[in-house]
Amino acid sequence: MVTTQLNPAQLNVLSLMAYIDTEQEQQELQDILLQFYRKKTDSLLLQFQKEHDITQDTLEEWANQHERTPYGNR
């Protein structure tokens, strides 16, 4: 059995969980955490797009590509 040690951030979140009394509060905290990670993900994606010169036109071009695997004769 593998054991995992929690890092300080994880321990902090766990200690805050002691103040959660209802499912609604749990859902609110989950929503806040999801919003935090969505914002972080969006920021990383924009940074990646800038670093690799990916424009909206590039994304639309990729979305409209039709790449199919040729199967040949069977």
Strand proportion: under 5%
Please bin the fraction of helical residues.
55-70%
Query: Could you tell me the radius of gyration in angstroms?
Result: 22 Å
Order of helices and strands: HHH
Low-confidence stretches: none
Q: What structural class results from the helix and strand content?
A: mainly alpha
First-last Cα distance: 48 Å
Count of runs of 4 or more consecutive helical residues: 3
Overall geometry comes to: elongated
- The averaged pLDDT comes out at 91
Number of strands: 0
* Biggest sheet character: none
Structure description:
By secondary structure, the protein is mainly alpha-helical. The protein contains three helices and no strands. The longest helix is centred in the middle third of the chain and has 29 residues, at 23-51. It starts with 7 loop residues before the first helix and ends in a 10-residue tail after the last helix.
Task: Produce the secondary structure layout.
Blueprint: H1 8-17, H2 23-51, H3 56-64
Tag the structure with descriptive keywords.
74 residues, mainly alpha, 65% helix
Brief synopsis:
The chain has 74 residues and is an all-alpha fold. It contains three helices and no strands. The chain has helices at 8-17, 23-51, 56-64.
